[in-house]
Design goal:
Structural class: mainly alpha
Oligomer: single chain
Order of helices and strands: HHHHHHHHHHHHH
Distance between the termini: 53 Å
Largest sheet: none
Helix content: 55-70%
Number of helices: 13
Shape: globular
Length: 298
């Protein structure tokens, strides 16, 4: 890749009059040796699966194998349709769609890890709801995914996207930043504004621990996807309105790395701390373990 940080992306885009998506596509063509048409076709398939996940989560039984989660997306969708949600119908749609995809993941359905399975609902929630709202075609959404990919590439290579390495700030935080930056560009924002959205989104996620109850990607992972989708839209609106990330986005990524490295092991996907070790969390763990023992002996 010609770029190794977010500032370089902005500089190249400004110098060559490119969008972030166009730059990323160029780099993908160079690295893979594949024609642009094939690369776009693959991304189109990824987006199709994202939309499929939204539809499935809103219409089918998404009760997880543990029985701990399921159908919350449908509850939010019903609430959205029955009245006027506090978020407004558009943000509530992003919330419902993000929950839908995350519940499909928890119920062993097919999803696209963006950038991980634990944060798989955020980009689809934002993208599919905004596509419906603004009547964007799939080609435009594919461009958005390439822009999100460029941002995710930088975060992954300068910090981390794994909860086991850096806590949930690395998973949900990265996905929120990717969605925020890409949405800013989709709405006509400049590359510099997109990167401000990234910094704003990441700052709001710093320190978020990874504390899955029972060691499953369900509680609190699923609801964090819902919150993350709304946060991404908030960051994009701030950036589009002219709000800047006073701390440069690359420095925010560095801080995420610092915070993740300092985070105790019990708060990095081990289920040894946080919500997983509350009285209720421990009870759920014991019940899951007992259920597994029964299943193994039956």
């Amino acid at each position: 890749m010609r770029f190794h940080n977010l500032a370089q992306i902005v500089a190249i885009c400004e110098e060559e009059s490119l969008t972030i998506a166009q730059l990323m596509i160029q780099e993908q063509v160079k690295e893979s040796g594949e024609p642009e048409s094939k690369i776009r076709e693959q991304m189109q398939e990824y987006y199709r699966i994202m939309k499929e996940g939204v539809a499935k989560g809103l219409t089918e039984d998404t009760t997880s194998r543990s029985g701990l989660t399921g159908r919350d997306a449908q509850r939010v969708q019903d609430y959205r349709k029955q009245g006027t949600p506090l978020l407004g119908p558009e943000a509530a749609a992003a919330l419902a769609y993000a929950l839908a995809v995350s519940e499909v993941n928890a119920s062993m359905g097919r999803i696209i890890a963006t950038p991980t399975a634990g944060s798989c609902g955020i980009i689809p929630g934002v993208f599919v709801s905004c596509q419906e709202r603004f009547s964007w075609d799939d080609e435009r959404m594919v461009d958005g995914l390439f822009a999100a990919g460029a941002i995710g590439y930088i975060i992954a290579n300068n910090a981390f996207i794994s909860g086991a390495e850096g806590g949930c700030q690395a998973e949900v935080g990265s996905a929120v930043a990717m969605a925020a930056g890409a949405l800013t560009e989709l709405r006509g924002g400049l590359p510099s504004q997109a990167m401000h959205a990234v910094g704003l989104a990441l700052k709001n996620s710093l320190g978020l621990i990874c504390d899955p109850v029972g060691g499953l990607v369900e509680i609190p992972c699923i609801v964090r996807n819902g919150f993350g989708a709304v946060s991404a839209m908030t960051a994009a609106d701030m950036a589009l309105s002219g709000v800047r990330s006073v701390i440069p986005s690359d420095e925010v990524v560095e801080v995420m790395l610092e915070v993740g490295q300092a985070m105790p092991d019990k708060h990095r996907e081990t289920a040894k701390g946080g919500l997983a070790q509350t009285p209720t969390g421990r009870r759920i763990m014991k019940e899951l373990q007992a259920s597994r023992r029964r299943d193994s002996t039956s």
